[in-house]
Amino acid sequence: MSKKGELRRRLLAERSALDEGEAQKQSIAICDRLQEDPMYRNAGVILCYMPHKGEVDIRSLIEASWRAGKKVVLPRAIPGSRSLELYALTSFGDLIRGAYGIMEPKPEDRYRVLPEELELAIVPGLGFDRRGYRLGYGGGYYDRFFSGAGSHVARVGAAYAFQLVATVYPEAHDQPLHAVATPDGIRISEE
């Protein structure tokens, strides 16, 4: 198994072993740090995600964004092209189970959002390093998006404390994030 594969396996095991109460406590702290940050405060249109299989739970950030009058956007994975479509979300009741079992917005044209409208993206991951690279599940959806239509978007990873590692063994196609939000604060990428 490659170093990247071993790291992915180890971080998945650590995330699975994380106590539910501790996960919720860290998730709330991460959402609080994000809300305090100027990148978030100055953004009107924010790409978020629905937590899946133990990812940092940012639903409180989504709710705070709605209350603040921000447009919350969620991605919809399109497996055939390994691309993301974007849709505005106005209620958790508007979600359906997507291609990978992740809750996604219904694909209704009236809620479609163009990539150029986005100002900030909050993204999940298995691991993050200090240079801003993220380790995902290996599908490359976010890397393709951030190297193309979403290249202009400020992007921040949401990470439990243990998910910040020395390296995630980035490859040439990997797109770094600008910062990573942890329970302790926002870490700006070193690269």
* Class by alpha and beta content: alpha/beta
Q: What is the distance, rounded to the nearest whole angstrom, between the alpha carbons of the first and last residues?
A: 28 Å
**What is the rounded Rg?**
15 Å
Strand order of the largest sheet: 3-2-1-6-9-11-12
| Helix content, binned percent | 25-40%
Rough outline: globular
Main β sheet profile: 7 strands, mixed
Q: Number of helical runs?
A: 5
Percent in strands:
15-25%
User: What is the typical, i.e. mean, pLDDT?
Assistant: 95
The topology string of helices and strands comes to HHHEHEEEEEEEHEEEE
Low-confidence parts: none
Number of strands: 12
Could you please describe the fold and organization of this structure?
By secondary structure, the chain is an alpha/beta fold. The protein is built from 5 helices and 12 strands. It has helices spanning 3-17, 20-36, 38-41, 59-67, 141-147, and strands at 45-47, 71-78, 83-88, 95-97, 103-105, 120-123, 127-129, 134-135, 154-158, 164-165, 179-182, 185-188. It has a 7-stranded mixed β-sheet with strand order 3-2-1-6-9-11-12, with helices on both faces. It has a 3-stranded mixed β-sheet with strand order 8-7-10, with helices on one face. It has a two-stranded antiparallel sheet with strand order 4-5. A hairpin with a 4-residue loop joins strand 7 (127-129) and strand 8 (134-135). The longest helix has 17 residues, at 20-36. The protein is globular, with a radius of gyration of 15 Å. The mean pLDDT is 95.
